[in-house]
Each structure stands twice: as C-alpha cells, then as structure tokens.
Amino acid sequence: MAYDEDLANRIRELVQDEPGLTEKRMFGGLAFLVNGNMAVSASGQGGLLLRVDPTDTPALVQRPEASRFEMRGREMDGWLRIDPSSLASKRQLRSWVSRGVSYARSLPAK
C-alpha cells in the first residue's frame, strides 16, 4: 500500500516552516525529519508513524488510536502508529505532529 498523499500534504502544511525540515521516503511512507531525526511519517500502512519520547510510550498507547510500531515482530518504545480514523480534523493531526516534531527537535542533529 502506498502512503496517503493527502495525509502527507496535510502534514507538510503543518511543518513547512520548521527549521531543518527534510522529507525522505522510508518505512514505506513519506517521513518528515527535523535536523535529520524522523518526527512523523505518512505511513505506507495508513495513518501516522510517529516518533515520541520512549518514556511516554506506555501512557500514549492507552489511547485507542495509538499503538506501538512493530518492526520484525518486535514492538518498539518511542515509535507509534496512529490510526487514520483519528486524524480527520486539523486539530487532531496537529496534536500528534507537534508531539513528533518536539521530540525530534530535542535530539542531537544528525
């Protein structure tokens, strides 16, 4: 499945003024990186792939729209999948995107 181009455009609109922003195809989607660190991606599996502080993962996955990202059968703290049905409004999307951008910005530049 290809990533949702409409979702990618909506993310782009929210992050376009971020300093150090780049876009890169990765994990089957279109990722938005801040200073070389992935913040958020329009996932190839639908919805968002989001990078967050690993210590926030247990609380965030309590929300019905969020789940841990799984890679090669292993769930990973600090990486979330956000269900596309919870991203309908700009406010909903902005909330998740802002979280990912803030965390990426807190990391050392690559």
Structure characterization notes:
By secondary structure, this protein is of the alpha+beta class. The chain has one domain (5-106): Aspartate Aminotransferase, domain 1 (Alpha-Beta Complex). It has three helices and six strands. The chain has a six-stranded antiparallel sheet. Strand 1 (21-26) and strand 2 (29-34) form a beta hairpin. The chain starts with a helix and ends with a helix.
List the helices and strands and how they pair.
Blueprint: H1 5-15, E1 21-26, E2 29-34, E3 37-42, E4 48-51, H2 57-60, E5 66-71, E6 74-82, H3 90-106
Antiparallel strand pairs: 1-2, 2-3, 3-4, 4-6, 5-6
Helix pairs in contact: 1-3
Question: What's the rounded overall pLDDT mean?
Answer: 96
Identify the CATH class.
Alpha Beta
Number of helices: 3
CATH architecture type: Alpha-Beta Complex
The beta-strand count equals: 6
End-to-end distance: 29 Å
Widest sheet: strand ordering = 1-2-3-4-6-5
CATH fold assignment: Aspartate Aminotransferase, domain 1
User: Low-confidence parts, pLDDT < 50 over ≥5 residues?
Assistant: none
